[in-house]
Design goal:
Keywords: Hydrolase, Magnesium, Metal-binding. By secondary structure, the chain is an alpha/beta fold. The chain contains ten helices and eight strands. α5 runs parallel beside α10.
Length: 241
C-alpha cells in the first residue's frame, strides 16, 4: 500500500515564484520594462532565458543567485509537512513536477536538507555556462494544447506512472498538491480514488470550481488547503486506514 504525492513547487512548496524571486539579484531589484514586457503566453522558459542573460550581463554571479534563492520562504506548515513525509517514506513516494528549473529547486531543497524527501524532480533543466551565465531549457516537447510549450504536467505524471508500473509499483492513491493553471491538466487525468489538493484562493482552485459549475467536474476528490498542516492532517488519516 503506497501513496504517490505529486507536488508543484512555486506557491506550493515555497510561498513565492522562484523565477520572479531571482529578480532581487537584478540592479535596483527590478527588470527593465522592455524585458518585462517581452513575455509571450506559453513561452515562460524563453522569457526566463532572457532574464538570466540580463543578470549575467550585469555581473550577477552564481553564488549571489544561490544566496538569494535560499532565502525564499516556505509555505506555512510546509517544513513540518516535508519533515512528516520524510519520516514516513515507507508509505509515500514523492515527486515534484514544476515549471521552475533544476538549479533553483536543487539549491532550495539542499539548503534545507529536504532533497531526500523527493524521489524525483521533473522540471526545466538548467546549468551555468562556461561564462557563468545561467541557462534554462524546455523540459520536453508535447502535443497538449492546454499546457505551456515547455511542460505538460499530465504527460510527466502519466510517463512516471507507466515507468513505475513496469517496475511493479502501483499506487493506492495519487495525491496532487498544487496551485496554478498548469496543474489543471494533470488533475483532470486523476481517477475517482485519487485526490486533488488545490491551494485556497489560487488559480487551480478557481478552475476546478469553474468546471463543477459547467457540470463537467473533475473525476477525483478535491480537498482545498490553505496551510500545509491541512495536507498533513489528510496524510495522517491515509496511513492510519
Amino acid at each position: 500500500m503506497k501513496f504517490l504525492l505529486v507536488f508543484d513547487f512555486d506557491h506550493t512548496i515555497v510561498d513565492e515564484n522562484s523565477d520572479t524571486w531571482i529578480v532581487k539579484c537584478a540592479p535596483e531589484k527590478k527588470l527593465p520594462n522592455g524585458l518585462r514586457n517581452s513575455y509571450q503566453p506559453g513561452r515562460w522558459t524563453e522569457y526566463m532565458g532572457r532574464v538570466f542573460v540580463y543578470l549575467g550581463d550585469n555581473g550577477v554571479k552564481e553564488d549571489e543567485m544561490k544566496r538569494t534563492m535560499t532565502t525564499i520562504p516556505f509555505t506555512a506548515g510546509m517544513v513540518d509537512l516535508l519533515g512528516f513525509i520524510g519520516k514516513n517514506k515507507e508509505f509515500f513516494d514523492c515527486i515534484i513536477v514544476s515549471d521552475s528549473n533544476t538549479v533553483f529547486i536543487d539549491w532550495i531543497l539542499k539548503a534545507t536538507d529536504f532533497h531526500r524527501v523527493f524521489d524525483e524532480v521533473f522540471t526545466n533543466p538548467a546549468a551555468f555556462s562556461s561564462t557563468g551565465y545561467l541557462t534554462v531549457q524546455n523540459f520536453h516537447a508535447h502535443h497538449c494544447a492546454k499546457c505551456p510549450k515547455n511542460l505538460c504536467k499530465r504527460k510527466v505524471l502519466k510517463e512516471f506512472l507507466d515507468k513505475q508500473s513496469e517496475r511493479g509499483v502501483n499506487y493506492t492513491q495519487i495525491v496532487y498538491i498544487g496551485d496554478g493553471g498548469n496543474d489543471l491538466c494533470p488533475v483532470m487525468f486523476l481517477k475517482k480514488d485519487d485526490i486533488a489538493m488545490p491551494r485556497q484562493g489560487y488559480t487551480l482552485e478557481k478552475k476546478i470550481s469553474q468546471l463543477s459549475q459547467d457540470l463537467s467536474p473533475v473525476e477525483c476528490s478535491v480537498l482545498v488547503w490553505s496551510s500545509a498542516t491541512d495536507i498533513m492532517s489528510y496524510l495522517k488519516l491515509l496511513i492510519k486506514q
